[in-house]
## 1
Amino acid sequence: MSVRLGFIGAGGIAGLHFTNFQQIPAAQVVAVFDVDLDASERAATRFPGCRVYPSASALIGDAPIDALYVCVPPYAHEDFESRASERGVALFVEKPIGLELGAARRAASVVESSGILNAAGYHWRYSPLVERARESLAGQTIAMAEGVWLGGLPGSRWWRTLRLSGGQVVEQTTHMVDLLRYFLGEVEEVYASGSSGLYPEVEGYDITDASSATLRFQSGAVGTILSSDLVPGYDVYAKLFARDRTVEIRSSSLKIVEASHVEEFAWRPQPSMHFVEDVAFIRAVETGDRSLIRSTVPDGLRTLEVSLAINRSIGSHDLVRLPLE
């Protein structure tokens, strides 16, 4: 069967999904809305028969879709998830699932209670290297973890403003927050600090340039999350430490270090993690097999809460306990 897809948001990350769906025979993009009409029209030209809708409400209410992708910036979330839940279509929400915690909690609650098939866009969970790492650590107690996201300053103007993006932790490093949760479970305490002031010439820039967060997990494990947008190039990874075993996960490599043995795995992500994620979602919609989904909207809410707790601790200089009030 074909899975008919609607998109709210046609720029940025949506473009990756569009490219994937041009290579997935079962996926049929039939409806798109973006506040930028040109972006909507460019997207529609990629898919024969795709219609541009005048509003998100019109698309959710009228488009002949089986599933809805929500691919908007953090600040632009409205009640898309609730409306999709009311209609009963499957739902994919790109990370982060929102920016305001109360609204995100309400959306996740409606999605969960509706029973619709749903996913959050934490694509690292779909990497075969992550699965191999989980196999390696099965039965092991992870005592410590490190998540790192280092890169440069993205070009989107909204990304540079805290009230629009949530800053680097919420908009980018959230992937490493999620990955540590995937291995270690839930976080109970966060303490974080940040530095700023090295982009004085960038208009509207009010986020931290660099931050360090210490996490304590309910399991008793501890972790650190490091972020910076000052770094030329791109360096993103997670390290997990068990007794006599260290596991380092990167986008295209995995290293498992033991006292007398080192295993290394390389993966040239073709297809990409995003592609594997999209194939899994389409297949889940086709078959109803929810085991194919590795991150749901309610689970994405828990990652958002930890990400926001890091920001709260940076701002208050205090220890923050979860769940947030």
Note: The chain has two domains: 3-122+274-293, 124-271+304-321.
## 2
Amino acid sequence: MSIRVAVIGAGSWGTTVAHLAAHNTPTTLWARSAELAEEIHSDHHNSRYLEGFKLHRDLRATSTLEEAVSLADVLVMGVPSHGFRESLEACSKWLRPWVPVVSLTKGLEAGSKLRMSQLVHEVMPGHPVAVLTGPNLAKEILAGQAAAAVVAMADEFMSSELQTIFSSNLFRVYINRDVIGSEMGGVLKNVIAIAAGMADGVGAGDNTRAAVMTRGLAEITRLGVAMGGDPMTFAGLAGMGDLLATCMSKQSRNRYVGEQLGRGRSIDEIIAEMHQVAEGVKSCRTVLELADEYGVEMPIAASVVGVVHGGDTAFDAYRGLISRKPTHEIHPG
């Protein structure tokens, strides 16, 4: 009997993951909008988020949560962090016991500072949790370009089953037991991507961007390891791989936000014109709170918070970073 997959959230990445899974097993995508669900179901397009891309002909879509969730053998959560808890609570009414939950969301819950996997454990106790993450740009995958991801889960047998569900010839899925590191890599790279975008916006060169990305990876690793992640995770797809793609790609929402900030635009103006969430905007302050809690210094992340939420300019941020006294590269202190 085939494993039935339900994907909650018809944004660009949720739709793409549903498209991938539909190649291997019966998959239903839930969209909040009935019109969008009908377009995906009948026309195999998502013109709101993925204009011009054809979706798998067997992918079903619905705007009725019970229809999507009640028969699911795997629940995939592709909603932004600010709506994650509410969506979990809604799904919990229909989800059968012990069904694994896979998070696609690269953010933290404001206030509680919880990772999405922690939210699943809190809202849906007893359900196994996995994280699917990596350097994955939705439009490139739908265009048929090769990519790779990691499914992180403590249970390797179950993660190998999930690996099969999401893999294709051009989308390779690896296994990693480090849920904390894999999840935090995805969260933290969004903040550094805003900084890299700011460098582009103020007209800095490739040397500056490379320095920001490299020192940003050091910050990601310090906090991730302090929280219990494996340092090797941050040198892999969930860490450096995701960071590189998000900092360099013109498709990256977080990089775009940083670039526009570097050009002098206000954060409110930038967010108002965007159709999708840039998670780094929401999570950067929470990241600094975690860094303070764990005693980890994150000057690049602090500079991003200053620009996004504190009224600083991108030029102010880079002047501040340049004026910092250099320390030991590998063992700062």
Note: The chain has a mean pLDDT of 94.
